[in-house]
Write a sequence for this structure.
């Protein structure tokens, strides 16, 4: 087994152990509210999980983990056989949960520190030992397993196969490493022998052959010795190898293992005393083993059903997912070309029909003219005499045929002219084109069938690829019921946790970004949302509160809602806090909308409570929530009703989202609307539009809903002709989309409906900030880039305003004032970089001043600009970044300004120069928006 195989095995063991531990915790929590049958099934499930951890840990040499799991397994045996599960006490569950926690810590230590007995390990082992002793004192020791009668004649067939075919390559590698060992490569030899030891001891543990494992123990002692030399390694190693071969042969012959010990008796006694403490101390030799699979009367064990797996780098999976998206885009292009081809074939067929009719008419007309002219020119024709028209259209005939047919009249024998031949060629050409068109039609049909097959294969490929990187949402929330239970016991509250959409698939890379935000939100809801039981009863609520977490997919993104039925958030309290903290004047605070007030909750250090407890502090935890979500380009917003509860809506982009969209046209732009957000499509008359003040309204399903123009909700537009933008509300028949989201319902008027189409959702790449109302973009089959709407944003934006005004009429955010957010000076000679930085910082509620070079920045500072931070490029005309930094640090009144360098120069020389001149931070382009926004508060604070 090479290093890669060993690492792969350890990774699989780690993932499996975490699943088993989570399963034990989940079953323990479920037992409190379950019936007797469910409790019995849960105990069996936990016993199997602990047993699996014990066996796998022993196989990989994690003896501390194996011993701890064995003790916990005995606790579950006592719980199963010696307790009344119908009268299960909460304290019993709590004690077992503590044991699972200790086993988790032992697992983490064993995996990361190679089963070294650290003080923490010993403490955790002692904790589980005390739990086992407590159970044995209270309920009695577990009953010993029955020992079946075993045959002593021969080794079982399965064991023979393993020892005949699996062990010889391992022994060969052991002997090869011993024979090729040298002083120069001693470390490599020790590493290889260590792997051999783990293979042998793991096999002994898996087959429950402790005696065979003891034969390999001297190899571990040998390679762990501090004064190891090549001579000692080879001399003692060959002895160990010979003993292993002897033990293998004895097991194959069905005999007990008997190896002559060369070590002194005291050392042997100490080894025996150590092994007596292992979980296999009571296990007899192989031929007396209580393991049923080795009984001759029982059937051989089935082969391991687990399929072989490989490890794949995450970046490769990401590239594969992106290629699938490109494949879908190109497939859409093929479908468009196939549709155009069918249209062209139909057009060619219509033209051929017209051409055939024209050719036939041409010939008929020629025949009619020829015969009419002949009658007029020959009232008494003579045989063989040519008429005048025939002299105009020469007869095509050779001399022999002319002489042979000279005695025939024109009515008795056809005579052809060049005009007649030309008409015949036209007809034949039309027929050839018709045949080619038929072949084109057949090819178009085959092309259509191939495109359909490609669509099916692409859909299957997309589904399979997505399964490689997605996991169930339950992985992010399964730890929350335990945390909530502990908080309920500690703070004397009764709160239920409802998890919806646990099977919703999310990208595995999002798990780490979600765990901390979800913990903060649950703790916040528990501490500041849910009231005490007596308070809830006084206001007519049930004494038990509820926190609900729901995950679902909508429009190319994952939406996670964390809601509670507590007291909600008082907007007036937030308004008072804003004024008290000097973030805005009282007049400005009164003008803030509810959404803007809620946005202050995510500011660093902002809290609505006077004293922030250890449990939570609204604002402090929420700052962490927003920061973590920004790392994965996610967003969060709040919806609260005083006395009713609070909801936090988290939106995360999908790694690859291929969804159905409705293509519409508005303000000369083609827009994609996710079809799962469209509740209904209407065509209404202008007379059906009602008004409430200045707000158009639509009567829909027995209620009035707001009707707005789609272009009025978007914060961007594409420059078109000088003519004014078309107004859909002035049309006689208005196409209307009724959009549904968690924010409510909204009717949107568009210019024209184009049709339904499958699209690939592509989020905007960093450092571009996500515009309001825009989810991302997609590429159509003809190569055009189309914007995808974020329906939740649009409906929420509309709800925040009583009347919808055009974008140009929207006011800016807070006016610049020294009493509010910090001022940041952006210095860069690139206009694009300055604009991108300004957009990012403005969205984060910082005030921004721009300068195109160091000279302009220094002039602004000398003229009294009071900024908290300067973000400076290095290479600029007139005055570069180093010169500006030196000027700032040499001027006393600028000494408190933090300076961060943002440059494309990533070399150590430039970084060192900046730090020596006094830069506080050094960023390189392209920069990470999340890292930049995370570092700015620290720079300003310090």
């Amino acid at each position: 087994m090479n290093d890669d195989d060993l690492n792969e095995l350890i990774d699989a063991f780690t993932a499996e152990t975490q699943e088993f531990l989570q399963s034990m915790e989940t079953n323990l929590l479920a037992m409190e509210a379950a019936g007797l049958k469910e409790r019995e099934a849960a105990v069996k499930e936990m016993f199997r999980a602990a047993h699996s951890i014990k066996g796998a840990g022993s196989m990989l040499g994690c003896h501390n983990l194996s011993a701890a799991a064995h003790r916990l397994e005995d606790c579950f045996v006592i719980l199963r056989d010696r307790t009344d599960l119908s009268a299960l006490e909460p304290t019993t569950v709590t004690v077992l949960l503590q044991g699972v926690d200790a086993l988790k810590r032992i697992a983490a230590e064993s995996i990361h520190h190679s089963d070294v007995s650290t003080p923490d390990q010993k403490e955790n082992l002692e904790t589980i030992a005390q739990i086992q002793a407590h159970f044995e004192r209270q309920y009695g020791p577990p009953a010993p397993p029955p020992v079946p009668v075993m045959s002593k004649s021969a080794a079982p067939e399965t064991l023979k196969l393993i020892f005949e075919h699996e062990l010889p390559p391992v022994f060969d590698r052991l002997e090869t490493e011993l024979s090729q060992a040298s002083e120069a490569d001693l470390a490599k030899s020790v590493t290889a022998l260590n792997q051999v030891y783990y293979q042998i001891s793991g096999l002994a543990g898996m087959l429950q052959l402790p005696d065979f494992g003891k034969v390999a123990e001297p190899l571990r002692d040998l390679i762990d010795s501090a004064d190891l030399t090549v001579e000692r390694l080879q001399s003692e190693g060959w002895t160990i190898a010979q003993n292993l071969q002897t033990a293998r042969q004895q097991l194959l012959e069905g005999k007990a293992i008997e190896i002559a010990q060369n070590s002194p008796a005291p050392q042997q006694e100490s080894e025996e005393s150590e092994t007596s403490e292992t979980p296999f101390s009571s296990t007899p030799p192989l031929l007396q083993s209580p393991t049923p699979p080795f009984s001759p009367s029982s059937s051989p064990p089935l082969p391991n059903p687990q399929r072989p797996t490989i490890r794949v780098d995450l970046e490769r999976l990401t590239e594969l997912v992106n290629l699938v998206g490109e494949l879908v885009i190109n497939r859409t292009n093929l479908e468009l070309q196939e549709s155009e081809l069918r249209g062209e074939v139909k057009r060619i067929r219509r033209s051929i029909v017209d051409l055939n009719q024209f050719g036939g008419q041409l010939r008929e007309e020629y025949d009619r003219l020829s015969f009419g002219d002949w009658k007029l020119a020959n009232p008494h024709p003579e045989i063989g005499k040519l008429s005048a028209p025939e002299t105009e259209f020469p007869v095509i005939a050779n001399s022999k045929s002319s002489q042979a047919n000279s005695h025939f009249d024109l009515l008795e024998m056809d005579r052809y002219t060049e005009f007649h031949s030309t008409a015949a060629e036209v007809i034949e050409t039309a027929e050839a084109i018709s045949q080619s068109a038929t072949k084109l039609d057949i090819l178009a049909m085959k092309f259509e069938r191939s495109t359909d097959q490609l669509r099916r294969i692409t859909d299957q490929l997309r589904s399979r690829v997505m399964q490689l990187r997605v996991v169930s949402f339950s992985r992010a929330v399964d730890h929350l019921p335990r945390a909530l239970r502990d908080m309920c016991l500690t703070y004397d509250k009764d709160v239920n946790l409802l998890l919806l959409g646990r099977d919703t698939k999310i990208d595995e890379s999002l798990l780490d970004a979600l765990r901390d935000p979800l913990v903060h939100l649950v703790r916040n809801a528990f501490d500041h949302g849910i009231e005490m039981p007596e308070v809830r009863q006084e206001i007519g609520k049930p004494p038990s509160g509820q926190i609900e977490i729901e995950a679902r997919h909508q429009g190319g993104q994952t939406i996670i809602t964390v809601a509670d039925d507590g007291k909600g958030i008082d907007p007036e309290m937030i308004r008072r806090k804003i004024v008290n903290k000097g973030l805005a004047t009282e007049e400005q605070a009164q003008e803030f909308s509810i959404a803007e007030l809620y946005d202050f909750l995510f500011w660093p250090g902002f809290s609505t409570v006077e004293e922030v407890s250890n449990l939570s502090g609204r604002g402090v935890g929420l700052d962490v929530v927003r920061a973590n979500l920004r790392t994965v380009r996610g967003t969060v917003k709040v919806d609260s009703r005083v006395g009713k509860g609070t909801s936090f809506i988290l939106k995360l982009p999908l790694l690859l989202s291929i969804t159905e969209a409705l293509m519409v046209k508005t303000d000369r732009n083609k827009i994609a609307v996710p079809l799962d957000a469209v509740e209904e499509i209407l065509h209404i008359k202008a007379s059906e539009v009602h008004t409430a003040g200045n707000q158009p309204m639509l009567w829909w399903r027995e209620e009035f809903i707001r009707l707005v123009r789609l272009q009025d909700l978007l914060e961007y537009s594409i420059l078109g002709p000088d003519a004014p933008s078309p107004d859909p509300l002035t049309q006689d028949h208005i196409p209307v989309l009724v959009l549904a989201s968690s924010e409510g319902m909204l009717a949107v008027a568009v210019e024209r409906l184009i049709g339904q189409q499958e699209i690939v959702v592509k989020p905007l790449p960093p450092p571009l900030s996500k515009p309001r109302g825009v989810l991302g973009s997609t590429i159509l089959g003809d190569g055009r880039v189309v914007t995808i709407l974020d329906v939740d944003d649009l409906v929420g934006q509309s709800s925040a305003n009583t009347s919808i005004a055009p974008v140009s009429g929207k006011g800016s955010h807070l006016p610049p004032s020294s009493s509010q957010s910090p001022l940041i000076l952006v210095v860069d000679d690139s206009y694009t970089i300055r604009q991108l930085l300004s957009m990012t910082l403005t969205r984060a509620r910082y005030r921004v001043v721009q300068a195109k070079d160091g000279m302009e920045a220094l002039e602004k500072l000398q003229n009294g600009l009071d900024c908290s931070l300067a973000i400076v490029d290095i290479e600029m005309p007139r005055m570069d970044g180093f010169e500006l930094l030196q000027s700032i640090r040499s001027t006393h009144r600028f000494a408190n300004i933090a300076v961060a360098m943002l440059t494309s120069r990533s070399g150590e020389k430039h970084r060192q120069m900046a730090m020596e001149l006094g830069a506080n931070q050094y960023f390189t382009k392209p920069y990470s928006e999340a890292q930049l926004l995370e570092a700015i508060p620290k720079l300003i604070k310090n």
